[in-house]
Structures are given as C-alpha cells and as structure tokens.
Design brief:
The complex is a heterodimer of chains A (about 850) and B (about 250). Chain A has about 850 residues and is α/β, with parallel strands linked by helices. Helix content of chain A is about 45%, strand content about 15%. In chain B, the strands form three sheets. Chain B has a five-stranded antiparallel β-sheet, covered by helices on one side. Chain B has a three-stranded antiparallel β-sheet with strand order 6-8-9. In chain B, strands 7-10 form a two-stranded antiparallel sheet. Chain B starts with a strand and ends with a strand. The mean pLDDT of chain B is about 95. The chains are: A alpha/beta (about 850), B alpha+beta (about 250).
C-alpha cells in the first residue's frame, strides 16, 4: 500500500487508498454543500469565476509550458471564456431547491445536486476545462474530483486550486473541489466507479472507460469537423473564418475544422484567398511527407499536437515561411486510409474539391461518420438565397452542432458567434458519438430534478344537445323551427318499417310537406342496425343531399341515423378507429371528424329508454364479422332532441318494461359512476324518482296514462343526459355482451344484472377501485343510498337502506314482468358456459367499464355472470 | 541427437520422433511450466500442433519434450520461392484465422498481459497513461492468440501440412491484437512489403477495417519494448508516441 501523506486533512492523492480516503472527505464536504441556499451558492460561484478569470494569463502560460502545446494568447481567451461566459450564462439560473412552482397545476420542480462528480480533463484544454467543470459543479452544489492527464497535471491542478481557494473563501466547504495528484489509469477508473456522475472529456478510450464504469457519464467524443464552402458563400468570410478557427490554440479545439470541401466553381479563388491569408498549400511531395508525419499506424503523432504550422513543417522536412498560419494538403480521398482525412489537432487542413453541393455533402458526411460522429459540421453558404442548401446540409450531417458561416472552434462552444447555443467546453455528440447527451453540457446535466405534483382534479363538463324540446304534442311546434329559424330545405327522415307502415312517420313528413321542405324517408332500420343499413342510408343521402337528418324511433333508428350522418359527412371514416377504446374521452388517440358541416341532426324518440336523442353514443354492427362498434364522441350529439309523448303512447308492454328498466340502470350507473358530477346527479335522481313512481302505471295501462307516459319520457331523456356525461358502468358492459352473445333485449339484460352489480360495487374494500382523480375512495354504498332516500326508501343505517333499495328495485322489475335469471329467459346452459369466457373478456374491455366505481377483475365478472344465470 | 537450434540458455534437440527443448537456469520454472501448459491447452483445441509428450529434468535442467515435425519453416519457403509469396501469405493468414477461431478459456488473458507489459515498458507516465487508456477501452474477446505468429513458427511438412510451433506467448484475447503483433514482427524484420501484404490479407479475409488492427499497434509496440532490444527502440518509440483524439 502506498504511503499516505496527511497534513491538516490534506491528502496527497497518489494511490487508490489515498483516493478512497479523499473521496470520503469530499463526500462529507458535498453533504454540507448540498444544504446551501441559492444566495450562498451564487456568491461562491461568482467569487470562483472572478478568481479563475484573474488567473487567466498565469494559467495559460503554465498550460503551454507544461504540455508544450498550444498558444498562450489563445489559452488566455479560453480561460477567460470558461470563467466569464459560464458565469454570465448561469448567474441568474436557479439551481437550488424549488426552482419552479405552478400553483394552479400544483407542481414544483426541485433541483438537487447529484453528489460527487468525477471530471476527466484532457491535455489539450487543461485549465479552461478545469475552470468550466469546477464552476458548473459549484453552481449546482456538487463536489468535483478532477482526474488530470499526466501531461497536464500541474496546470490542471493549479486551476482547480485557484477555484477551490476562492470558493472556500466565499464560504464553500473545504474539499469541495479535489483532484488526483499523481494520475494513473487505475485511480481514474476507481474515481469513475466511486463517483456519482462522470464528466469525461478526452479521447474515445477515456470516454469509453467512463461509459463502462457503470456510473452515469456525460462523455463527449472526438470531432472531425468538415467545412463545406458552397459556391454561394462569401469567400473572404469563409476563408478567414476557417483560418481564424484553425489557428486558434494551434488547432486543438475539438470542434475545429479538419477539412475544407470547396465547390469546384470557386476552388481556385478559395485557394488564392488561403494563400493570401498566410496559409501554405503543400505540393504533392510535401503532402506525402506531412502525411507520413502526422499519422503513425492511423494514430495521431503526439509530437504535432498543438504545434505551429511552421514547426510541423520543419519536423516533416518542408520549408515554409515561419509565419505560415496553416498547412493545407490538397487531397482527394475522404477514406480513413487518407491521413489528411483524420482529426489532426494542429493547424493542418485537408482541402477537397467538390463537383457540386451534393458531392460536398457526401464528402462531409463521410468524414463525420468516420472520424467525428455526432460532433460538429460547418457550412459556408449564402443563407438567404440558398436556404434549401442550408436545410439539406442540416438534414444530412450526423452532427450535433451545425455552424453556419462561423469559425467552428468558436462557434461550437457557443455564445461567441451565435447566441442560442449553450456556452460550454464539453460538447455532447449524442448517440452517434456514444454519448448520453447531444447538446452542449451545462448545469442542467449536473442536477437531479424532482417534480412535486399535488393531486388535482380534472376539468369536468356537461354537454347536451343545444336544443331539447319536450311536452306532449310539441313536435309540430319544434319542427316549425326548421323553416322559420334554421331555413332548412331538404330533410332526410330515418325510421323503421313499423313506424313507416303504421303511418307514425307522417307526423313528421306531413309537417315537412306543409313547410315546403323536400324530404326522403329511409325506413329500413332493423333492431341492432348494421353497417350495411347505415351505408345504404348514407348512399341515399349522398344523392339526396339533405341539410337536415331527422331520426324517428327507438335506439336503433337513432343510432342508425347517427352513423348514416357520419358516413354522409365523412365517407372515408374507419369504424375500427372510431370505436377505439379510450380512458378519457378528451385524450383519445383518434380525433373524431367534425360533424354538422353538411347537415343538422334531429332525434325524435318514440320509446322511453335509450336516451340516444341526447347522448354522444351509437352502436353499429358489422353484419359481415358480427363485430359491434360502440362509437362515443360528442360529435355524435344530436343538435336537437324533440321529446313528444304523443309518439310514445302506444308502446307495447314489453318495450315499456325493457326500456323503462334500461333508463333506470342509466340513472343508477351514472349516479354511481366515478365521473358523476353535481350536474348529472340531479338529472339521475329525478329520472329515478319518475321511473319508480310511473313505470308500473305505464306498463299496466299504457295509452291510458298520459301523465305517467310523459314522466317516463322525461326520465328517459334526463337519464340520457346524465350518462351522456357521467357515463355508465359494469352493468352495461356485461349487458352489452349478454345481448350480443345471447340476444337478450338490452333492457332485460340490464334488469337481470343491475342488483348483482350494485351488491358487487358497494364493497368498502374492493380489489381495485376506479381510476379518476375526482373519485377519492370507494363510496358506491353511500351513493346508492342517496338514490334510495331520494325516492323515499329509508332504513336505520346505510346497509339497511341499501337492502330496502334492492328490494324496491326487485319489486319494480317484477311488476313489469322481468324474470329472475338469465336461465329463465331460455338461454341454453351449455351455450352460456361455452361463451362465458369470451363474454367476460369482451365485457371487461367494454367502454362502459372504465367509469364503474369498482374496477372489475375478469374473475369477478365471471362470477357475476354465473350468479345472474343461475340465481343466488 | 541432432541439435536443432541453440540460443543463449535454450537448446533444442531432435531425438528420433521427438524434439527436446532444454532451458537454462535463467528461465523461471513457472514460465517453463506455463509454456508446457499453454501447449497442452492449445493441443486440446484440436489445432495441428506438435503434441506435448513430457516435461522433465535432464541433468538438472528443465526440458519440454514434444513430437518432432519433419519439414521446413514457412519463412524459408517464402525466401526460396518469392513468386509464390501471395499463395503462402494466403495460407499463413488462413492458418492464423483457424487459430483465432479456437477457444481455450483457461489460457491467460491478452489484456492482462499487455497491461503488465506496458507497466514494464520503461515508458514515461504520460505515454503509459495513454496506452493503458487505449488498452482499457478495447473489447473483451476470447480468441486463442498465438502471440508470436510469424512464418518462422510454421512448419510445412513434405505433404504440405502446416504445424504451428512455439506456444510460449499464447493467450486468449483480440484477433486484431494478434494481427498487430504479426504485422510488427514483419516490420521489425524490415519486411515492409510482407507486412502490408499481410495486413491487407488479414483484414480482407476477416472483413474488418485496418484501423481495428492499427488501434493495437502502439500497445504491441510497447510490449515489444520490454524485450529491451536497443536496435528496435527508436522504431518502437515512434509507434507508441501517439494520441487518442481529444
């Protein structure tokens, strides 16, 4: 074990054990630092930036002296940039604690430090990178341990120490910035394994080591920036920008241009300008000499890195003016076998002649893919006249920074020649470069952001047809609007054979005739309307071109008319898409087409039950496959509903019973739904009251009970409005499938299931409850009891009230002739059992399931089906 | 007994059907046993190599006894018939690929060996750091690598069957490293044309870019430095003094 020198808590980090000891100190310091306020941090950040800035010249000199690479004056700029620009970019950035708060949505974003950051610093930019990384760590309350490169360790450590001293003086904990004194790969690897995050700048080897350490790493990769000079470019700006950038710190910036690709038409001129600006174009022999010097077995000769053009020329045995700024080799191949095609980290440029812009782009693409995947690309172009070329270039380059008419060394690091690219000395290269970031690394990458989200409730709604007209005998009055207000000319009436042949439809057509409105009647709607029927109707509409559709009948006629309306307005719709199951009607994947562009829609019910005249629902069956498409969207709401009891007086007994009980389940399920609101509750309660009071009389005496009929008509529509907005529940899910598989009338199926479902729903501890932010805890028992009490059913406690309510419902069902079990309706036992699993799965997936207060398990649904089949 | 070769501290004899290799006292017992063990392990892969017969003491010196293979070394044949060089090179690479296709999970790991060699290379801390970093980033492979694969270690029998000898440097690791080593051996013998011919053939037959092999060159050069051959030093130093891009 290497000896550890310890003095006043300062440890000379020259071995893995010493590093581990240091890490412990640094961790403790960071724990303290993590409690600092934004004000404390900002003061430390500013003090450290000032100290680094003041040391810009001494650090620059030191770096050049130690590494023997680069240019002091340019390194001064880099040090100055790393302190000033980084400070300026983040001086007002909130990085501590709550940084954002949205009281309305109830969210807070809280910034937390990551912990100990391992920073690998390269030889090419040792002091400026150290300043940059230390400053962004201070700003984010992280500790940093720097692993310098052996070639640049003294200057790297000096920079770190200046920042540490200033930070501590400004109140930062001791040891918040630390470093490895005697670097070795073993220690670097240990540091990367132990740290919480790695900021790795270096060669691909180091970046790969960072990513394989098992810790999150912000590594950045090699660049091989090509600069394309388009024929439209300003040659003077292009050449001088490139020379300026390429000579900066002797070409050691990773975003620096490595090759120039010049359009054939301006090649000579560009070459001339390069020469005029102090560059030397190598002869083919000299090019060969330089080739053999810059690369050894495909790797960059370390002796040329960061050296001046003249010095490199001398090394290669080429004589040039000592003031030569850049050596340029005219080469053809962009392949890796061409030495000039590599990154050179020195003032050496490859120059290519491109046939045209496409060729230039291909060459640039090749160079980037081989040597600088994800880094930077540069284009000189007339950005106004050749916008398309700019876009083409941006589209094609696999580079995370694409700088235009800009020296790329300066352009890539941001805020010097452009003002929206984050100032940074660590440039992400995205997945192309094997990096986790594709942008310039900044403080946001050194923070963990916590989002605090308080519970909020959804915006709710109540939607209903714009016009709901009701009262016995109101139909002619309501229809009069077609002429007087709506100025309609052509009406398309959809109804069924019974209503057509019995002449009921004349209550509408006679009125249309009187108002001089042309009309056509489609009267072939059958129960469970099919797509074929809807298509036939729509076809008729297509030639008749109505401006109003009037649906007359029960649920089937209204649903069929709605679908015809959809097909008439939007012939290309896909029912599979429209029927796609959703959790929230407002967030569904499918956007329902806008209705009403061609035609107005009026629904006139002739039975009291479905409520379809006021709901956004319609069910259609594909007669080919037997698939039922339940469509739901507020676009399907009729524009006008006319509830005229005169049309309902002669409903047959069975229909009165089934549709009346259907309306009751609508009201009950809407009331217990997780989406129930004050608005739907009132409607549901009043509907229930009407049903319990008037349904038996309607059933018994039919046409002789006009008041009861009217109350039932209102109940049906009100219940429709309730469930149009609060939706239904599992009773309807299961009834839908019972109807589909065994042809039980819809109302009967609901009647058989409703009390079983209510018992199922009242559990105070269901396996799963419904998901909706307004639904706080299981409350179905209380909700059902509210319904019970409203209609006058009482008891000494909720349980008793509920039992009495169930009895009352059973009584009502019996009074209108509903039998006890599914079996009583003659459904074959074997067939029932054979279809049971399919029914369960489909019922589970029914659109109505989501609003149920108890989220069902399929096993539970199966049990309910069985109970309902056999009776308890 | 016919003397086959005689180097300082290492002599080989032929005794009928067997070859006896006698090690001088400067050889570590562990190295001699390791060589025998390598040979045995590679033998188990089914490659055509002389079988290991005995490891024993002869007059107080360690000796490894193997089958004797009658024939001429490939380098001699190459020298004799330069017109057939491309055919020979093709066969040479094919044979190396066959070795590389084998697995011997208990052989030493090439990367461990190279890390050790870099430490022993006598290079300065900066270069060692860069070389370690470079090596560290190489993928973990487990192909049988001969470690000294060159034409003088191939014996061609009169029936044109090829046997590979001298498994003392065998490891398991990256094919590209073994190829870089072979390339270096040609270069050290100043056989530049053969080196390029070899690299072309190796990369073509394996459908890989030369850069994969080249990435290993600074590392194999550093490991060669350990041998301390002064005449090679300048050449090898040039190979190791390169940088990974920043």
């Amino acid at each position: 074990m290497a000896e550890i020198t310890e003095k006043n808590g300062n440890i000379l980090v020259d071995s893995v054990p010493a590093l581990e000891q240091k890490l412990e100190q640094v961790r403790k310091a960071q724990e303290i630092f993590s409690t600092y306020t934004q004000e404390q941090v900002d003061f430390i950040f500013k003090s450290a930036a000032i100290a680094a800035n003041k040391a810009r010249i001494s650090l620059a000199k030191m770096a050049v002296e130690e590494t023997g690479m680069g240019v002091v004056e340019d390194k001064v700029i880099k040090n100055n940039y790393a302190s000033e620009y980084i400070y300026n970019a983040y001086k007002n950035t909130k990085t501590c604690g709550i940084i954002e708060e949205d009281k309305i949505y109830g969210t807070m974003r809280v910034a937390e430090p990551i912990g100990v950051i391992a920073a690998v610093i390269p030889t090419t930019n040792p002091t400026s990178t150290a300043i940059f990384k230390a400053l962004i760590c201070l700003k984010t309350r992280n500790a940093i341990i720097i692993s310098p490169h052996p070639r640049a360790k003294n200057s790297t450590i000096a920079a770190a120490k200046i920042i540490l001293d200033a930070a501590v003086k400004a109140g930062a904990p001791e040891n918040i910035i630390s470093w490895i004194d005697v670097p070795s790969l073993e220690m670097t690897n240990t540091l990367m394994r132990e740290a919480d995050l790695i900021l790795a700048t270096g060669g691909p080897g180091m970046v790969r080591a960072a990513y394989s350490s098992g810790k999150p790493a912000l590594g950045v990769g090699a660049g091989n920036t090509p600069a394309v000079i388009d024929s439209s470019a300003d040659i003077k700006i292009a050449v001088n920008s490139i020379v300026h950038s390429k000579t900066f710190d002797n070409g050691m910036i990773c975003a620096s241009e490595q090759s120039v690709i010049v359009d054939k038409s301006i090649y000579k001129e560009v070459k001339k300008e390069f020469i005029y600006r102090g560059c030397y174009i190598l002869t083919s022999e000299e090019t060969e000499k330089v080739r053999k010097t810059i690369l050894i077995n495909g790797a960059l000769n370390s002796k040329i890195v960061g050296q001046s053009a003249a010095k490199i020329a001398e090394m290669t045995g080429v004589t040039v003016d000592p003031k030569t700024r850049v050596l340029i080799g005219e080469v053809n191949s962009v392949d890796l076998e061409e030495e000039f095609a590599h990154e050179k980290l020195s003032p050496i440029l490859a120059m290519y002649c491109a046939e045209n812009f496409d060729d230039a782009i291909d060459k640039a693409d090749h160079l980037i893919r081989d040597g600088g995947y994800g880094h930077t690309a540069s284009l000189y172009v007339n950005e106004i006249c050749q916008r398309e070329r700019l876009k083409q270039f941006a589209h094609k380059m696999k580079a995370c920074r694409i700088v235009v008419n800009t020296p790329s060394s300066h352009g890539g690091i941001g805020d010097l020649y452009n003002f929206n690219l984050t100032p940074s000395l660590t440039l992400g290269c995205g997945s192309w470069g094997g990096n986790s970031v594709s942008e310039n690394v900044g403080v946001k990458h050194l923070l963990n952001f916590k989002t605090v989200a308080e519970r909020r409730e959804n915006m709710l709604w109540f939607r209903t047809p714009q016009k709901v007209y009701f009262k016995k005998g109101c139909l002619p009055v309501a229809l009069q609007e077609l002429k007087d207000v709506l100025k309609k000319k052509r009406a398309f009436v959809v109804t069924d054979q019974y209503l057509f042949q019995s002449g009921t439809v004349r209550c509408i057509t006679d009125n249309l005739h009187k108002m001089d409105i042309d009309y056509q009647v489609y009267s072939d709607v059958e129960p469970d309307p099919t797509l074929a029927c809807a298509k036939a109707g729509a076809e008729q509409m297509k030639s008749f071109k109505p401006d109003v559709v009037i649906a007359l009948g029960g649920g089937s006629a209204m649903d069929a008319a709605k679908i015809m309306w959809v097909l008439y307005e939007h012939p290309d719709v896909d029912f599979m898409d429209m029927a796609m199951r959703f959790i929230d009607i407002r967030k569904r994947v499918y956007t329902f087409p806008e209705m009403g562009q061609k035609s107005y829609f009026i629904a006139v019910p002739t039975s009291s039950g479905t409520g379809s005249e006021v709901t956004p629902f319609a069910v259609i069956t594909d007669e080919g496959t037997g698939t039922k498409y339940p469509l739901a969207d507020y676009q399907l709401l009729p524009n006008m509903a006319i509830i005229d009891t005169d049309l309902m007086m002669t409903q047959p007994k069975g229909l009165t019973a089934a549709s009346g009980i259907d309306a009751m389940t609508h009201a009950l399920e809407a009331y217990a739904s997780v989406m129930a609101t004050d608005y739907t509750d009132g409607l549901a309660l009043q509907a229930l009251k009407n049903i319990f009071k008037y349904l038996p009389a309607c059933y018994e005496n039919g046409a002789n009970e006009p008041v009861a009929r009217e109350k039932m008509a209102n109940a049906s529509t009100m219940a429709g409005m309730a469930f149009a907005n609060a939706f239904l529940g599992v009773c309807h899910s299961m009834a839908h499938k019972l109807g589909a598989f065994h042809h039980l009338p819809h109302g009967v199926a609901n009647a058989l299931l409703i009390t079983k479902i209510m018992r199922y729903n009242i559990s105070p501890a269901p396996q799963k409850m419904g998901t909706f932010s307004q639904y706080p805890y299981p409350n179905a028992l209380e909700r059902y009891c509210e319904c019970a009490r409203f209609i006058g059913v009482n008891g000494s406690n909720n349980e008793e009230v509920f039992e009495n309510f169930i009895s009352k419902i059973e009584e009502l069902k019996a009074s209108v002739g509903i039998k006890n079990t599914i079996r009583d309706y003659g459904i074959d036992e074997q067939k029932f059992l054979d279809t049971l699993d399919d029914m369960v799965e489909q019922a589970f997936d029914d659109q109505c399931t989501g609003a149920n207060p108890r989220y069902p398990l399929m096993s539970e649904m199966k049990e309910i089906y069985l109970h309902t089949y056999y009776g308890e | 007994m016919e003397i086959l070769s005689e180097k300082l501290e290492k002599k080989s004899y032929r005794d009928g059907d067997v070859r006896i290799k006698i090690f001088g006292s400067s050889y570590k017992k562990s190295d001699i046993l390791n060589e025998a063990l390598n040979q045995a392990r590679v033998e188990e892969t089914g490659l055509a190599i002389p079988h290991l017969l005995e490891v024993k003491m002869i007059e107080g010196q360690w000796a490894i006894v193997t089958e004797f293979i009658e024939g001429e070394t490939l380098d001699k044949l190459m020298e004799k018939s330069p017109e057939k060089i491309s055919v020979y090179m093709e066969q040479f690479v094919k044979l190396q690929n066959e070795v590389l296709s084998k697995r011997a999970p208990l052989l030493n790991r090439l990367k461990d060996k190279m890390n050790r060699k870099i430490n022993e290379s006598g290079l300065n801390a900066t270069i060692r750091y860069d070389l370690h970093t470079r090596l560290n980033s190489m993928r973990e492979h487990s192909k049988v690598c001969h470690g000294d694969f060159n034409p003088s270690n191939i014996i061609v029998t009169p029936e044109d069957k090829m046997y590979i000898v001298d498994w003392s440097h065998a490891t398991q690791g990256n094919a590209s490293a073994d190829a870089a080593r072979t390339y270096l051996l040609f270069k050290l013998k100043k056989q530049d044309d053969l080196a390029e011919l070899y690299l072309n053939e190796f990369c073509k037959s394996n459908d890989i870019a030369k850069q994969y092999v080249r990435e290993w060159m600074p590392i194999v050069a550093a490991s060669q430095l350990v041998k301390g051959n002064e005449s090679e030093k300048e050449f090898l130093l040039r190979w190791v003094d390169v940088v990974d891009y920043d």
